[in-house]
């Protein structure tokens, strides 16, 4: 993925060893590509209401109460506990988050519209 290569190159050049690019933002849904240089750590933080991580390249460790190791091609739902991320090697991952709860339930609305049209 060309975009992942660009994100990693930016992370390697960054003083802090990391770079993030927002790919998608639709209401509460966000998808970001995050690049980390080997040895870089994202400090412990709280999880949003829902999140997943897909490692595109490299390998990272999730640190905290529910530690785990992820390698290229691995995907994990992030739990609702504080956690950090440590890059064991130069890495890029896709982070998908739901940052809030939408007041209007679009699926329920669509279902109601479909039922009304029959």
What does this protein look like?
It is a single chain. With 118 residues, this protein is an alpha+beta fold. The chain contains two helices and nine strands; from the N terminus they run H-E-E-E-E-E-E-E-E-E-H. The chain has a five-stranded antiparallel β-sheet. The protein has a four-stranded antiparallel β-sheet with strand order 3-8-5-6, with no helix packed on it. The longest helix has 12 residues, at 2-13. The model is unreliable at 104-118 (pLDDT under 50).
Rounded to the nearest angstrom, the radius of gyration is: 17 Å
Q: Span between N and C termini? A: 44 Å
Structural class: alpha+beta
Fraction of residues in helix: 10-25%
Shape: globular
Strand order of the largest sheet: 1-2-9-4-7
Number of helices: 2
SSE order in H/E notation?
HEEEEEEEEEH
Oligomer: single chain
Strand content: over 45%
Topology, number of strands: 9
Summarize model confidence as the mean pLDDT: 85
How would a crystallographer describe the biggest sheet? 5 strands, antiparallel
Low-confidence stretches: 104-118
